[in-house]
Specification:
Blueprint (H helix, E strand, L loop, with lengths): L14 H5 L10 E10 L8 H16 L7 E8 L3 E3 L20 H21 L3 E10 L10 H13 L3 E7 L3 H8 L3 E5 L3 H20 L12
Parallel strand pairs: 1-2, 1-4, 4-5, 5-6
Antiparallel strand pairs: 2-3
Helix pairs in contact: 2-6, 3-4
Length: about 220
């Protein structure tokens, strides 16, 4: 039975819709999905306050855009473990930040790709037109994942083949080389400072907004704004 409109639980309701935004709460047939994986390892500790400010400004920029109603964002935090949230409206985007532990980047990429694949497929099956961006922010290389490099690269290759925009913000360190080796098509390499951090997230928000205006895939032009 399907009782979407009367508030009753739907028999067999797909778990995907419970984890993410329900079809009933989506107002447009055009959906822009944004996955943002954020490195919260110990090396980021000195930027805790700056990251909170940068993430708050990122959310506000997206909320103030004309395309806000068509955007759904999932945030994934990774340090020695990973925590991946569902695809939610911009106003629900969490802007807190804590740091500690190692860097399980490959796990965030492989599991994040699977969650994006599943929800994107679900929306398409419901008749939605879906465009997606898969972005990672990190200041270093992986050193604590169960997934291997080859598994993470296979996930990125899948995203590229599906014309999902792959983007990577490298915040100093050796992350840019890792991103290139994994196959990310858009890499923004910035130095380690508070001003560069905020500049990076300002660029990310502008790129997401511009991407959402077009029906075409971004290819390697995502950060060209």
């Amino acid at each position: 039975m399907n009782n979407r409109g009367n508030g009753m639980m739907i028999d067999g309701l797909d778990e995907i819709e419970l984890e993410n935004t329900s079809i009933d709460d989506i107002d447009s047939e055009n959906i822009n999905l944004m996955f943002l994986g954020i490195d919260q390892s110990g090396s980021m500790a000195i930027y805790n306050r700056d990251m909170k400010h940068a993430l708050t400004e990122f959310r506000e920029a997206l909320m103030n855009s004309r395309e806000a109603d068509e955007m759904l964002v999932a945030r994934a935090n990774f340090d020695s473990g990973i925590e991946i949230g569902g695809y939610k409206r911009i106003e629900e985007f969490y802007t807190g930040f804590t740091s500690g532990g190692c860097t399980a980047m490959y796990d965030a990429i492989t599991e994040g790709t699977e969650k994006l694949r599943a929800y994107r497929t679900f929306l398409k099956n419901e008749g939605m037109r879906v465009k997606a961006v898969f972005a990672i922010f990190s200041d270093g290389a992986d050193n604590d994942s169960k997934s291997t490099f080859s598994e993470a690269k296979k996930a990125v290759d899948y995203l590229n083949d599906e014309e999902i925009t792959t983007a990577f913000i490298s915040f100093g360190g050796e992350a840019a080389r890792t991103a290139a080796d994994l196959g990310f098509r858009n890499i923004l390499d910035v130095s380690s400072s508070a001003s560069e951090l905020r500049k990076a997230f300002n660029c990310l928000s502008r790129s997401v907004i511009e991407s959402s205006k077009s029906v075409l895939a971004d290819g390697d032009d995502f950060f060209q704004v």
